[in-house]
Request: fold
Amino acid sequence: MSWEKLQSTQSNVVKMLSNSLKKDRLAHAYLFEGPRGSGKKDVAKVLAKSLFCMNKNGINPCLLCVHCKRIDSGNHPDVHFISTEGQAIKVDQIRHLKKEFSFRGVESEKKVYIVEDAEKMTVNAANSILKFLEEPDGMAVAILMTTQYHRILKTIVSRSQVLSFAPLIPERLVKKLVEEGINEGDARIVSQITYDLEEGIQLCQDNWIADARSKVIQLIDEIYLRPKYAFITLQEGWMTFFKEKKDMQLGLDLLMIWYRDVLRFQVGHHEQLVYIDQQNKLQDQSLKISQRKLGSNLQAVMNAKRRLDANTAPQLLMEQLLLRLQEG
Reply:
């Protein structure tokens, strides 16, 4: 990945960082905020390469030297990645980070620290990292990345330069996925879940997204056509397929997309449908479900996503959601 490629998707972010690099005026701390798959980690890596590359052309890293390759592989001694241990970034990880800050760079005087999912720092971890942000080392750059800007401590926000990443255009992702041999139906579903091409391709591997899509449609059918069997389908179909928490979140995303499609059908926006091969079912539900009920269903799914993120037991969460969706 290069600045030139990133320019086509995140022009404002690239422009700001490029100008800072040219003027040698990088901030000591950045907060990259934006949706999943919008390129935050790619930009962080290219920024690190621009600082360490041995054969730069202006600010552009060569992408081929030992520094560039080690940053790509995550093995550069002066570029540190911090990610969640379990469900959170813990205070001990930040203490280790602060200890690293006190050392001179192994191969240069520079250091770069990239904190992924910064919103998942515990309160103690977030408070601990403030010390660096309040008393920065001039040769170190910290990059915090988040998809949930509202969960970052205001004191961290105020001490960082915030760069907002725009979501990629779904139609562009659909086109690229189709070019990779993925059928349009699956590509449209994926474009509503992620903005990242590589993640989209991964979701389509081994027909996972196609199977997940089928599980959602099956559960929807049971809710509205065979309500007595809905809990059996939940137990035997949904829970056995969406086993991991991240998979369950994707399943809820697909469920939300379905209800949005029903709403789109009601208001006549057929060209925006995602479940493009399910128009008969969408039309039938659009005639039977009020907009008020659709709004309630969407809110119920969003609440379930938040509760799942807060470690509510998945089984209980889905049973309660199913009851909400079956209400009149």
